[in-house]
Amino acid sequence: MTSQVSSPAEQADATVVGEQRKPGGAKDVRRLDRVIIRFAGDSGDGMQLTGDRFTSETASFGNDLSTLPNFPAEIRAPAGTLPGVSSFQLHFADHDILTPGDAPNVLVAMNPAALKANIGDVPRGAEIIVNTDEFTKRALQKVGYAASPLEDGSLDGYNLHPVPLTTLTVEALKEFDLSRKEAERSKNMFALGLLSWMYHRPTEGTEKFLKGKFAKKPEIAAANIAAFRAGWNFGETTEDFAVSYEVSPAAKAFPVGTYRNISGNLALAYGLITASQQADLPLFLGSYPITPASDILHELSKHKNFGVRTFQAEDEIAGIGAALGAAFGGSLAVTTTSGPGVALKSETIGLAVSLELPLLVVDIQRGGPSTGLPTKTEQADLLQAMFGRNGEAPVPVVAPKTPADCFEAALEATRIALTYRTPVFLLSDGYLANGSEPWRIPDLDELPDLRVQFASGPNHTLPDGTEVFWPYKRDPQTLARPWAIPGTPGLEHRIGGIEKQDGSGNISYDPANHDLMVRTRQAKIDGIEVPDVEVDDPHEARTLVLGWGSTYGPITAAVRRLRAAGESIAQAHLRHLNPFPRNLGAVLGRYEKVVIPEMNLGQLATLIRAKYLVDAHSYNQVNGMPFKAEQLAAALKEAIDD
Q1: Which residues have CB under 8 Å from 72's CB, separation 6+?
Q2: Is the pTM of this model over 0.85?
Q3: Tens digits of per-residue pLDDT, 450-460?
Q4: What is the arrangement of strands in the sheet containing 570-574, beginning at the earlier edge strand?
Q5: What is the C-alpha to C-alpha distance for residues 354 and 525, in angstroms, rounded to an integer?
Q6: For a tag site, which of 161, 263, 433, 638 has the least CB within 10 Å?
Q7: Distance CA 323, CA 423 (A)
């Protein structure tokens, strides 16, 4: 049985592209073009680790992929409850994909809570693998099941595979000197082994990982490996799984190069290290741990060999204060945080605007306000980044569009900060930070030269002929002031938050001077050179969908669906949000209708309407989850037809 390979449009269901029947009673192998798998269980069941290992093996196999980790904010959420469910979704394919997928083809549910929390996303006909050992009367009652869904017929429309995962794991580990509770912890590895068999994933990497992770506890390492192998063997021998599946490598999806799987936070950390090397500056991170930005601090702390210095401060204010001090001292200075931390850092960001020093403010956005939804995603800090300071304190804003793009965004934010001597906001979010995809490791000759020249001597001549150093004498092209390293003879100058006199940098309360400095700082930001926005419009559409940040994947997937269905729609995506690309006004003016999907209540749309007087239409979502391609496609189709 064969059928056509699906187009790159991210269709709702995987397409069967071939089936191979093996002789001698061996199991059939069915070839698919794409699969979406979701692992779900208690937050202590190791679902994130399981998903991460499956992802790593999938990346090494050569598939294109996109992931969506989803977990509670509590360190140890209540076991067996709906709020305590942790899940990891992986979409992998033999062609170019852009999102973690709308609906899973396979759900692995480790308990009743995991099933109930996720069944609403699972389409009829999908595979559901459940750990029957956890479907006890008490566990069912805890989540509101009056009867077991495994027995009441409510799952008749699915391909249900009841598997006693806990019992099988304990049985597989009976030769190890482990208590039953210790053995049960390996049931996620049994599930991983089963799914690895089911989709022909490599196994060597996972076994090597387990040996390394538990190097100091070889008995635990051996037990996890045994559980992993037992899961694989169970799939091979049980009659319940009559078919396994293959998803070929995405050979045509990627340009030639060396690839690795990478998350947004890891890509951002690597981008910062690369930027410091390209700028020939030591990298300093002043940070306070906060979800979902903490992984950047963790990663950068491992790279002292590249001249990286990390400072875990006692609070957000101290973190950015130290970073600004490092910038004054000649380092590439960074502070990382999320929305609540930005609020605390706002005064020091204003000071950085006044001092006109390069500083990267990395905001990994999450659901708010206040503590809000720490482990969920949102795009609601755009207006805070634009205006969240007292006085006129303009700051450039850059936003990556995919996990891998966080690397390039870090380089671009660094270029702007160093060239124009200004703090720069880099707006990522939880979806990008924790999600992952393949990333092509760039060649060194592809990287930008970010080196800067420090001030080295006098730069101004007084009327009496005396040569002096003026800390606010500007480059005529960039309006950047000189960067003078403390301790350089003859370059002594005052710093502080009180307004400076143009040129000399002396304290000034003169109204005309303040007006000049405010307008000059704004002109510097307005004059930043950024690339023109590119428009994807193959059919001269009347409707344009405009996005920014992590909405790129769902928007592009939705646009592909619409075009595959014969609709005409244009797409543009913004990396630079302040200043906007110079051609943006002209681009917007070419279309009868502009639709802006955002994971907020319309913040970019507000800016677009105000600046360009365009009646932009907002499509908004603030439920802590990324858009689904099908959902966006329906909304955009409605906009086209309206």
Answers
A1: 43, 83, 84, 85, 86, 375
A2: yes
A3: 999 999 999 99
A4: 535-536, 570-574, 543-548, 593-598, 617-620
A5: 13
A6: 638
A7: 11
